[in-house]
Amino acid sequence: MISAVGLRKSFGEFEAVKGIDVEVRRGEAFGFLGPNGAGKSSTMRMIASVSPVTGGELRILGMDPTSDGPAIRSRIGVCPQEDTLDNELNVFDNLFIYGRYFGIDKATCRERAHELLEFAVLTDKAKAKVEELSGGMKRRLTIARSLINRPELLLLDEPTTGLDPQARHVLWDQLFRLKQAGVTLVITTHYMDEAEQLCDRLVVMDKGLIAAQGSPRELIQHYSTREVAELRFGVGEHESLVGKVEDLGERIEVLPDRLLVYADDGEAVLAQVHERGLQPVAALVRRSSLEDVFLRLTGRSLVD
Ligand SMILES: Nc1ncnc2c1ncn2[C@@H]1O[C@H](COP(=O)(O)OP(=O)(O)OP(=O)(O)O)[C@@H](O)[C@H]1O
């Protein structure tokens, strides 16, 4: 569905994407995970064929965005980071009129708009003004709108940023259903839980480059241990305690407010910590996540 080789994007002197290789296969959910400024949106805009490629090769559905932009855009759906719904129109017309832009005939537009309202659980809001919708409803409508041309490939730029946890889960369910229906999804996110929930494969992006790629499980297995013991001591004590616990794990991370000890058996680490007479203010054991992968690869946290 997408093939990028040495893909680059520059804005003047500044290189936002510094040569990345990506292959997205039909039917999968593929993620670009990375912090703000990593180059995710710049990559998505090139894939959406709305921002010119500066260097390297890019093929979308086998076509070249430089020469085949209109043909590509007619076969993909794009859900941008910011809601771009038309506040002047009601919910139904946001779908109907958008469909007309694609040259779809009125009867088909009407039929699809009704179907999509149902899919987005917004049928009873058909006549409502956009401004009356909650943030979650607006995102669902934006996704519904991006499906009006029955795209094979759907691009979603940070689909759940700014939504509360419940609204995020409803949206994930909507995306999951699309995937089951065979739509290829490409998602950018800086939420590790979103990437873990939705993506079959993902790339971790940082500073315009790909730091790692694979399935969430592969990345965690490759770059982290099974578990992590999180130890919270008094403010300013963490650095000085590293020497007392570093032999307990395969790796240690010192964060401003806690020590992370990476080991396959986190409970055994905690037992040793207590045996050594150390008394953390708080301690817990959890499974490794993509956040740990990111920390290992970049020394930074995903969400700052
Ligand atoms: N039109 C532009 N002109 C100049 N610089 C830009 C432009 N668009 C993006 N950039 C810069 O390119 C870098 C990558 O931005 P991009 O939006 O692709 O990152 P991102 O990973 O999507 O981050 P975010 O999560 O904040 O959207 C940033 O440093 C940004 O300031």
TrEMBL record:
Alphabetically ordered keywords of this record: Antibiotic resistance, ATP-binding, Cell membrane, Membrane, Nucleotide-binding, Translocase, Transport
Annotated TM spans: none
One Pfam family per UniProt: ABC_tran
One of the protein's GO biological processes: response to antibiotic
PROSITE patterns: ABC_TRANSPORTER_1, ABC_TRANSPORTER_2
Domain ABC transporter residue range list: 2-232
GO cellular component: plasma membrane
Keyword 4Fe-4S: no
Keyword match Membrane: yes
Classification via Gene3D superfamilies: P-loop containing nucleotide triphosphate hydrolases
GO MF term set: ATP binding; ATP hydrolysis activity
Compartment list: Cell membrane
Membrane topology field: Peripheral membrane protein
Similarity comment: family membership: Belongs to the ABC transporter superfamily.
Full protein name: ABC transporter ATP-binding protein
Organism listed in the record: Nocardioides seonyuensis
